[in-house]
Amino acid sequence: MTRPSELPAEALSSAAGRSRRDPRLDFFRGLGMLIILTAHIPDNPWILWIPARFGFSDATEMFVFLSGMASAIAFGRVFDRDGFARGAGRVARRVWQIYWIHVAVFVVIAALVAAAGTRPGGESYIVELNLPHFFADPMGLLPRFLTLSYVPNYFDILPMYLVILALMPAMILAERLHRALPFVLMAAIWGLTQAHLLDLSAEPWSDRAWFFDPFGWQLLFYLGFFLMRRTLPAPGFSRILIALAAVFVLATVPFAYYRIIDASAFFGGWAQALAPLTDKTHFGILRLVHFLALAYLAAHLVGPGGARLKGAAVAVISKVGQQTLAVFVSGMVTAQVLGMALDHTGRDGFTIAAANLAGFGVLIAVAYTVAWFKAMPARTDGAPAAEAA
Questions:
Q1: How large a percentage of the chain has pLDDT more than 90?
Q2: Per residue in 123-154, pLDDT tens?
């Protein structure tokens, strides 16, 4: 198994940043970012071919699980090396940063849809993103937005992530009390979520909850977190587990693929019956099992330590995976711009391909630009250098 010191982190000190990175985490995080962009472009036919159409889990699970693994390096080391108070402070600072990034992304996209006006057919972009209430009463909803009691659709992943991060000091404390205690805590929180006892209100005019419930999704994040810390032992290679994982992944396809569900009353009925177990909002248990099966297969497909991950394309995708936060927020804005462009050009095969590839190009450019800035040498005039993010 790869040593923790060889694994990547979203935020590393300059010294740690020079350590060898695990190519598997960078590659799959980058792949997840490209899939998420595809899913976010409005009316994008390519969405019919992303993994979510063929199984219970999707790129969101990749993002959350791998973020947990990365956070074990970025923050877990601080708790271990510098003490609980310093670690909690580091987490609080990151939560604060993500909060203001969330605010900035909302402001930028709200301004974008307001300036864009309407589609050629007359549909309002404000309505498309479910923002009419905000534009009708910005003074009333702005305080709610800033306190996360108003979380519009499309702007719900970062709030989920910052709440999950805020749970980290409690999870670290539980781990110090007993190795098994964090898993009891994770399961208890997840169980309360399945009973809808921890739902967070997304808007004051309805009973809609946050689309991504952080108390459900924390289960996946902290599985990755404690797997990286070796509090949770990693399963080794097993032909039996490989076979079971492959059978489960293939068996889920008829219950997830829309063409089969639409054509078969049997599979359509079962898909509906299984909905509570595949619920994305509260992170249903079958989503977890499906993702873990896929992750196990993928980890062994790419070889020990990602030995089979080679070539120029892998290098580019991995670079995207090294800068996930900057890439993700850039992708949110880029997806809306591309959707607006497609509204005017039409959605034939060429324009759809051009839009998706252009979006990939933007994310790649952002990743390389951010990496270039992070690689700039520290100041040598005696002033403290900014910490790598």
A1: 84
A2: 899 998 999 999 999 999 999 999 999 999 89
Residues 6+ apart with CB under 8 A from 311: none
Contact of 106 with 135, CB cutoff 8 Å? no
Other residues' Cβ atoms within 10 Å of the Cβ of residue 127: 13
H or E element, residue 283: none
Would you say the pTM of this structure is higher than 0.85?
A: yes
Distance CA 375, CA 204 (A): 45
Give the integer Cα–Cα distance in Å for 38 and 49.
10
Beta bridge partners of 209: 201
Residue pair 195/288 in contact (Cβ under 8 Å)? The answer is no
Q: And the tokens for 259?
A: 């063409």
Rounded Cα distance, 133 and 45, in Å = 29
Q: CA angle 255-129-59, nearest 5°?
A: 40
Per-residue pLDDT of 146-189, as tens digits, reads 999 999 989 999 999 999 999 999 999 999 999 999 999 999 99
Q: Is 176 helix (H, G, I), strand (E, B) or coil?
A: helix
